[in-house]
């Protein structure tokens, strides 16, 4: 999603402002929610930030009581789209305004993975041109939502040797250009589901470039056809499947209707019985930064969904278990096979250790 400019118009901060704020707080000795250390190159940066709020004892079986929110990389304009790559043991994630994808690996740290990532043309006036959501297809290729190219695309190059050469998977519906695909998920049969809010367009829903009058949830069928699933959501954003693939979840990042929807996936890949599973509109405030955005569903059905105050942890029936709050608006998360939940939160890439 975008950097919450609808909700918090003064929070469109650049990296320099982040640095100034951090240095000010550090010099004042403000460490009530932040611990710091010094990296090998002598740069001081947070080691742990924020807090984990426990709203049910059940959370202790998922996140250990002594778990911390660890900062493992920082300095990004708006981090998004984390993806754990099992074959290699690393995380890919996007910096949407910078039109880049970064890679982080234990023992190696951060490196630039791909640039450009979401806009491959000559010029754009979009403030959010880069790639957003990332996933892998059954063939192991990187698939991404490209904001300013206004498409879902597959990177033609292998993961180990990335290059900005892409094959379009979806860029139109009924002959009209998509808004700016945001997040995506692929089921075991190869159906690709994605959301299409207007955040990659300058002016968003009022952009003169907008060709479709709504913000849709779509499926790309295995034959390549783009099928509209839902046009009723004002800002469809994060999207995920249940572990068995029987349910599709969609976040709506509208401060006036901050909700998550669930749909029953049909045998042909379509959806039915769209229903509200959680409404956090009353949580939306200046003190709880963020809106419903990216999400992932754990094997036991627990939902980890970014929203007001960080990553909300709740059951499929909406019962809240807790919240992982880095203190910044939080975009998305991903499970790693190393036991960590990786979190993109504004200028940070963070992680929290989960229990088996």
Structure description:
By secondary structure, the protein is mainly β. The protein is 4% helix and 44% strand. It has a single domain (9-353), classed as TolB, C-terminal domain (Neuraminidase, 6 Propeller), CATH 2.120.10. A hairpin with a 5-residue loop joins strand 1 and strand 2 (44-49). Mean pLDDT is 90; it is low at 4-34 and 38-43.
Q: How would you summarize the topology of this molecule?
A:
Layout: H1 15-27, E1 35-38, E2 44-49, E3 51-54, E4 69-74, E5 79-85, E6 90-95, E7 100-105, E8 109-114, E9 131-136, E10 142-146, E11 151-155, E12 166-170, E13 172-173, E14 176-177, E15 184-186, E16 192-196, E17 216-220, E18 226-230, E19 236-241, E20 247-254, E21 257-265, E22 271-279, E23 295-297, E24 303-307, E25 310-314, E26 320-325, E27 332-335, E28 340-345, E29 348-353
Antiparallel strand pairs: 1-2, 2-4, 3-26, 4-29, 5-6, 6-7, 7-8, 9-10, 10-11, 11-12, 13-14, 15-16, 16-17, 17-18, 19-20, 20-21, 21-22, 23-24, 24-25, 25-26, 27-28, 28-29
Name a few traits of the molecule.
Neuraminidase, mainly beta, 5-stranded antiparallel sheet, 4% helix, 29 strands, 6-stranded antiparallel sheet, single chain, 1 helix, 356 residues
